[in-house]
Amino acid sequence: MKPGRGRVEQIWVKRFAGGPMDPVRGAALDPAAGLIGNADRSRRRQVTIIARERWAELIQALGADLPPATRRANLMVSGISLERSRGRILAVGDARLKINGETMPCERMEDAHAGLQALMRERWGGGAFAEILEGGDIHVGDRVEWETTP
Fold first, then answer.
1. Tens of pLDDT along 61-72?
2. Higher-scoring residue by pLDDT: 67, 149
3. Helix, strand or coil, per DSSP, at residue 49
């Protein structure tokens, strides 16, 4: 796999604020409505993303066995780093997302495992949040790649 290129590993949709993260095989992204069927979104934060490799580092450092849904992100991607990606454009399948910033971990991460929240504050461990520039249907296994250089 080329640097800056990866794939969608998992997709989750949250039906209501504070609700469970439901795994899905595919989802629709809409610039006006965000991730269709997902609660808790704003114009600049329509989708949240974590990197599989970074999640694995966190779990190993904790010595824990926590599923990635614990992070409560919408997408898990592999093969790319989200660290310091603010302003970059990420192509996910046919959709295009603008990374607007780092997702800061909340107290729910500490509730999941002691020390997780603090670890996630380092090197964009909480992932990134993005707005949808161009919508489309996305699926587990879709390509993910940066359109802009770092």
1. 999 999 999 999
2. 67
3. strand
